[in-house]
Amino acid sequence: MIHFAWPWLWLILPLPWFIRRFFPAANTAEQAALKVPFLEDFNVAQSQQTTLSNKPWLLWLAIAAWCLLIVASPRPQWLGDPIEQGVSGRDLMLAVDLSGSMKERDFIVNNQAVDRLTATKTVANEFIERRVGDRLGLIVFGTTPHLQVPLTFDRKTVMTLLEETFIGMTDNDPATAIGDAIALAVKRLQNQQADSRVLILLTDGANTAGNVTPIKAAELAAQYQLKIYTIGMGADEMIVRSFFGTQKVNPSRDLDEKTLLAIAEKTGGRYFRARNTEELQTIYQRLDELEPVEKDQQFFRPRSELFFWPLAMALFLVMIVSFKR
After folding, report:
1. Which residue among 2, 13, 133, 275 is the one 20 to 30 A from 90 at the CA level?
2. Is the alpha carbon torsion for 148, 151, 157, 158 positive or negative?
């Protein structure tokens, strides 16, 4: 349907008639005597005044140009069909561990052994794609946490920048600052007007760096109603074959499950254990159930500007009238 952005401009349509009706024309002879001292110039001025009377079609072109200009002035637009926009009011932050231990290749993706970060990217991207209506952000941490993506509705950007992360990106120190990562999430979310604030923290180790302990950071998060879901990464047991023979190792020996569980409990979240890709995928599906996307009824109508068509036609008619005079 057609919509006018400034409909009040239709009121100036009778302006030429109003000027003609209430402001009578000046005396041409007096004006010529005062302003045109030479006879040939006077004749030119007289001929210009009588052009419209000799060529009435020019008058109609001028009227048409004025009408087209008035049509363009209210800024006509074409409104498309309403498109529903999902806005849940939730701010959801992902915190991903990039410490050296994430290099451990104990996950399987497409029948190939991959490191923990690669498995995280594969599964997390599917989770991000489903979060229509949520504002998403990304924090990466090792010894120090960094905000990789501020809160945004642009899920594609979050997925792209998550894909570009790499182990050791934040620093070369293999330490893990879980408490500082939570504190950074609290800082970024505390002033946001949101119905629900959620942090999904994924790590494969224990807190070995930082200025804030994980428990203290969790207490601070609880004060700001930030719910934290923690995910512990890593297989329980692996068989390693070497020159010296075959032995069993525990890649997750450094994982502090007790602390991750305490963080989740203090903030009203939950702790999950991801020993393989299938479990990690199940966890993200479970998070979809725990934090469902609830859309408000908001609609957007695409607009296409139409004013330039009558404006271009009006200018074209004005050019014709000007050259024909």
Report:
1. 275
2. positive
Per-residue tokens: 276: 């393989």
Structure tokens at 157: 């950007």
Evaluate whether 275 touches 281 at the Cβ level (below 8 Å): no
Place of tokens 């068989």: 239
Q: Supply 136's token pair.
A: 């998403």
Residue 112 CA to residue 122 CA, distance in Å, equals 13
Q: What are 23-47's pLDDT values in tens digits? A: 766 655 555 555 555 545 545 545 5
pLDDT tens column, 246-272: 544 445 577 889 999 999 999 999 999
Q: What is the pLDDT of residues 288-323, one digit of tens each?
A: 888 876 555 556 677 888 888 888 998 898 888 887
Q: Rounded distance, CA 275 to CA 159, Å?
A: 23
Helix (H) or strand (E) holding 284: helix 277-290
Report the C-alpha gap between 216 and 180 in whole angstroms: 10
Tell me the two tokens of residue 158: 């979050």
Question: What tokens appear for 184 in the block?
Answer: 């950074």
In the predicted model, is pLDDT for residue 194 greater than 80? no
Q: Do residues 188 and 91 make contact, with C-beta atoms less than 8 angstroms apart?
A: no
By residue count, the chain amounts to: 325
**Structure token pair of residue 238:** 């692996």
Backbone angle region of 22, left / alpha / beta, with phi > 0 → left and psi within -120 to 50 → alpha: alpha
Is the overall model pTM greater than 0.70, yes or no? no
